[in-house]
Request: fold
Amino acid sequence: MQTGRVTVGSRLPRVGTRADLMNALEDMIVPRKNEDGGRPPRGTPYGLKTYVLESDRDFPRRFESGCMQCEVEDTGLDAVKILRARRGGAATEFFLDVEDGRFPLLHTNGRSEDTDGIVGEMAGDDCHTLDNIWLHSAMMKRLARMPGNSSGGNGAAAGYQDQGAADAAARGVARITRGSGADPRGFVQDYVHSTGRFAVMRGESVREHLRLVDMCRKEYAGTVAAVEKRRIGVGKRDGKMLVEGGQFDFQFARNIEDLGAFIDWMFSSTAPFMMWGVKFAIEDDYFGVIAADLHAGARMHFDIAPDLIRVYLYKRGCGNTVLRLLTNLQMHYDAGTTCRQIG
Reply:
């Protein structure tokens, strides 16, 4: 079995135990020496990063997406694999942890520019049923308040228009700290992105980093399960067939001015919403949309007015879709967007 220190650009070791994985991640949490012997300075995008994904089926062993090719190799652990991605001629490796099959993890110390692009392409290709997780502003705030966590402030994601301090949590990036003390091995501060990217910025505690990731994953899984309990369908109770489920009401702090253009943008089959739909007029400034989510391929229905979007998710739909909608409406339209059924 291959062993040894993980350096920037090196091949990942084929770990045989969870302890081996922890040792490998310890090597990745701070910038280590390059293969040429140089040490990247603090602040470079080479530190440990963990991406949380959402998957509707088993992680594929091999797939292609655009200009990227990926293959998954076994290690000595059933739940831990190595994902090798080739994109633009360069290869980047990730530890792939599939212990939670619905929400797999990717660990890497590759350059952020490369790893963000790879994960984004994986999540953006609807053929593979992979998606990001989507952390809306209230969920980011809850994560920062969980036991042992503290908020280190907020920052704007690239390309996001500044809307003032009151809207900081909706900008897509929060700094969250776990642990304490002068010894960097006793704490960690992560930049947490709304797409489920946890990047270590300060501190060297792998254990606290993984605890933060696991807290988020459990909170998110519970929210997705609650969303899916509201899916519309037919059930049987006391011998009677009944319609079950309910809608999701998205409300804005400011009204939509051009409803037709807004709907065309939202259902254009492209990022960030990844939905396709056909609109029809119900009355003035009130439309219905029959739509499909491109991640799961499931049918949805929307009622859309200038101040409200009402969403109906059907039984085969994925709860992740509703959280993607809420997070991206906050990010790209109105930071004050809320949904009372999600909180």
Q: What stands out?
A: The helical segments are 18-28, 112-124, 137-145, 206-229, 259-266, 319-332. The radius of gyration is 21 Å. Confidence is low (pLDDT under 50) at residues 33-44, 153-169. The CA atoms of residues 224 and 319 lie 5 Å apart.
